[in-house]
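S.,

Sequence below, as promised.
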Amino acid sequence: MQELLSVHALERRFGSRLVLRGLDFRLLQGEVLGLLGRNGAGKTTCLRILSGTLAPSNGMLRIRGFDLANDSAVVRRHIGYLPETPPLYPEMRVDEYLRFCARLRRVPPANVERIVRRIKQRCGLDQVGRRLLCKLSKGYRQRAGLAQALIHEPDLVLLDEPTDGLDPVQIHEVRALIHELAPSCGIILSSHALSEIQAICNRVLILSNGQILHETTIGMDNGGTNMRVRLRNPPPTARLEALAMVVRATPIDIPPAVVAAPTTTPGDNPTDFRIELSLDAGADQLAHALVQGGWGLLEMTPEQGDLERIFFHSIEAQDSSRDSVSAEAAA
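The prediction came back faster than expected:
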């Protein structure tokens, strides 16, 4: 896939406070990248810099090969941005607002009405075109903000909490729209909801204190996952935990019917384990180790909820490291 965005050594200071600390990442066309972190981690600051609405203190940012610092006007034409608070004009009607946004984004005048009709349909605004923005519910205001970000068909779409204020049906529709858009552009979104990131994104950056703590790909081959394995002749749990890629192994009771299944033979003692892999390990490494151990690997599947575990593991590791440094300094 073609590289759409490249970020190198990105920093931002507010006075003496360093808010972003040397971010390095890239985005390929077709990717949906999630920014995940606690409040104050730097997610919104990062999106503001990528959108061109906030200047970086240091670092390089290139979109489609254009440098943000030297080609700002060109770069901005490639970007659509929905900030956490949608940039709406309350006294405008929806149709009027979208026409205004289209003109700001230099949509050719002959195409404005067609583009407005299409974006209203895509964002579920067909029935509210003549209503004042100030009279819309929070969910519809969020949709209008999303529409303005997409109206000029940008290459890079930046979404800060895009499903905030939406009901479950609207959330599903926004997810579907993002997946529909993704092949033709690149999307970066931030969210406080782990479930949203996991449902929408295919890659995630975990931020804390302005740094990237961990980068993970959401998928079955993802390192740092919980795997459920079934072994025909299991070793003691301590033997499993001695494997280099295993953080923790926990036996799980299985129904008697499974023990008597045709895949077992007399004398077998099939046992299920929940195995937590280290963050830099993959399922293929675990499978190889289990086969090499001669323990009769019968089944192996990834468990859900891995992103949550990775997130808290990364945050706790940083907190522990910070506490250790503080203790050494105080000693």
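Residues 255-264 have pLDDT under 50 and may be disordered.

Coffee later?
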